[in-house]
Amino acid sequence: MVVTTRLLDSGHQLPDYFDGGKVLLAKVLAFFEGDRERQTFHSIIVDPDGRFLQVPSLEYVFEQGPGAVLEFLLQKYDTSKLEDTRYELVFQMACVLGKAPFVELLLSRGVDIDATGYYYGSTLQAAARTGQLQIVQSLLNKGANTNVIQGRWHTSLRAAIVGGHLDIVELLLQHGADSKLKYQTERHPLHAAISGGYVNLVEMLLSKGADVNIEVDDCDCRTPLLAAIKKADLRIVRLLLESCLQMINELIAAGAKVDSSSLQEACRNGDLSIVEALLEQLFIDGVDPSEIVDETLDSLTMGKSTDYRTLNLLLDYVPPTPKRFLFTCSSGSVPLVRRMIQQGMSVDGSNEEEDSPLQVACYYLNFEVVRLLLQRGANVQARSSQPGDPITLTLWACASPLQQQLEQRGTRHQKYLNSEVVDYRTTQRCTNIVRILLEYGATADNGTDELESPLQLASFIGSFEIAKLLIEHGASLDKTTGSFKTPLFSALQGNNSGIISLILEKGVDVNYVHPTHGTALHLVCQYNDESLVLQLLQHGASPALKDANGDTALTLALQSAASRSGYGVSQKIPRLICQHSTTLDITDSDIIAAARLEPSDLLSFLLVKRGEQPVSEDLIIRFLSEERRPSQENLEVLFDHSGGLEITPRMLNIGLSKHAFNSLSKARELSVHITPDMLESQTDLGTLKALIEYQPGVEVTEGLVIKILSMNSPYRMWGQPEENTELLLSIWPRNSSLLVTDSMLKATTSLLQLKFLLERLGPAHGKLQDIAIWICEKGTEYSGNQADILALVLQSDSDIKLSPSHLEKIMLGAKPLMLEIVLTHTPSLSITEKLFLSIFREYPRAREETRKEFVEVLMRHKKKIVFTEKIRDAIDKAYQEHSDIEKREEWYTLRERDETQEEAEARRSEENDGNKNDDHISLTRQDR
């Protein structure tokens, strides 16, 4: 506005409205763009539609920016009625700012009083949100709709409530605003008033009949009562808490129903006055509070609430029951447990409940409660219906974090668990409970086939003190239960060396075969723990035993070492096993695993240990198949123990890597006749090249050419010759009798390869028709530069005939260059509806220069298009803004005429027939 003022002050004159003023207004109005169809906005930052982002404030826009200029120009020009919908956004912004004169000016020029859309929703909503009472009154007097649903705050009433404008809320209600109106699952106006802490607004809405029990889905405060209780959790100031209590009382007085959710939220917030008010209301309503109180007790104790005052208050309103006694025992409050025992609750609970009070207290590791129950005579044995005795449940609670970690990580090849997951205090409480239970006569050796024994759990946790206590009280070392099966396996998986030593010294069966892990020796071989392997071997572990897969511990040790790769990987564990074994079943798998290790002395040691059984051709082939980078040294060892075996054709037919071929050819001299079939079986270009160099003059077949074309060159770079093409040049001279086939052309993966084949094809004269169609049908799936490849094919064969149906697929996602190439080759090509949409629809949000290039190509080739309904819709949808008019018109210059109804029916009939023919052709090609 400052610039405009200076220009006018320096003598510049405003142009006449029709000579330039109209254009001037349009340029200023272009600053006000937005999506007027959108209904929901969730954030002032994330959803800024219809708002200015690059200015200090909206006030700046209307005081110094385009808004101020626009108001000035409208005052100067007699524009008659303002029909451009962007004036509606200007209208809303003027309402937000309370610019009454501008609002009246816009109304006088015919701008809709209920202008809707954009971020602000409506004019009335915009004014209500910022408390513009004068404008709200004026709009209402002129008939503004109070119940429009759109914009950031959805309704005018909700906008006023969010702003806390009591006078505007009252005014809107007087003019028919619906207090029950809300958008889909959005919060009700009553929710908004409560969340804002506006007690007066709550009272007003309730007096107008707002539904106090309305429920809102997908909201953490489902009901108004729950929203009020949640508000108390903010604890901003005590005054606000009192206000929230007042709101809750207002809601209750108006008939709000108390449920377990609201009671639980009040208990968590810890305001006893609110909890008491809710409990009192339950009795006033004549509702049996038992179910609601029980649900609340369950929720609080499961959440380990330590606010015993709240629990005590809840228990004051209901009689004692065995179920509530269990809740109290799980809470850990000794005074509450003592109180309920004094009220007549049995320390052994009721047979109607699944768990006993002692079991519950043990599972929640509440030592003081356990001690109180035992002192009052609680039975330490588990009920017959429950497998979890008190000691087992105690240890399960302590081991639970480790068990979850073990399940998440898996048990195979995993050794180290995070022992810090179970903190010292938890372990100490667990130890104290187990000790006192044993003192009161609990059994140390419980457990079933499904549930781990106490000793297994103690071994897994790593508590040496508990494990020793259990063993001293008769716990079995070899009892197989649960998933661990034995205490030794649980100690191994918990990585607890002290307990492992204790169990081994006490004489555990070290050769028990676990259904998953095999023997303990199998498991520690996977862990690669040398000291544990030696410890097990010294206590009688047998290396000859096999696991469920038929593998020995030696096999697992070798595989574990081989998986870590690298020269000099520790081979001590396999050697330890060999040293402690008088007889070993050394398998081919063992030999292959050892052959993957360097240096080769362990491989030689095993081959000597295996005796006179020679290394077979199958074993070498298997090794070469599994190891992509075998060492020359290990291959030499294998051949030295093979009884005179040399390189065989079968070894070369498995698709060797170049590294494997080099190691193999250095380990033994290559003396094999190379055949085309052998060459076609290769998977590595380097190996294939080496074999051809070894035997020059090998027969070049179609299959060999296709194989070379299909291989990836590891050194392919732009502008550099490809190894594939260089190899073909060396084996396929121009005067060769070998003919170029369609299969060869389709196997090319680059422009260089295609050029090479076309040079050997000679004059095409229509031979490339099928190849051109194949490239088009591959569309965006074709690997390589589509435009260059198609251009080369078209350049090499002028007899190729292209139709729109051939090009529809390749033009999806293609660049303008592709269209240029096609139209240059086939100037008469008609632009059908499908072909146009293939070009245009791929770019609904494209950069405008890409669209511009497309239209320039079409104009350069003087193409005219019969516009169909779909073509018009595509263009109109892409260019909806006023600023896009020129771009839209540019596309419309291509229009020859509109399609007639008869032409549309004939086209659809032809398309249906074409689809049937395409299906038939596709099936025919598949049959071929």
UniProtKB/TrEMBL annotation:
Alphabetical keyword list: ANK repeat, Repeat
Cited InterPro entries: Ankyrin_rpt, Ankyrin_rpt-contain_sf, Multifunctional_ANK_Repeat
Domain of life: Eukaryota
ANK repeats: 119-151, 152-184, 185-217, 353-385, 450-482, 483-515, 516-548
Region spans: Disordered: 895-928
Repeat as UniProt keyword: yes
Pfam families: Ank, Ank_2
Designated name of the protein: Ankyrin-1
Organism name: Fusarium oxysporum f. sp. cubense (strain race 1)
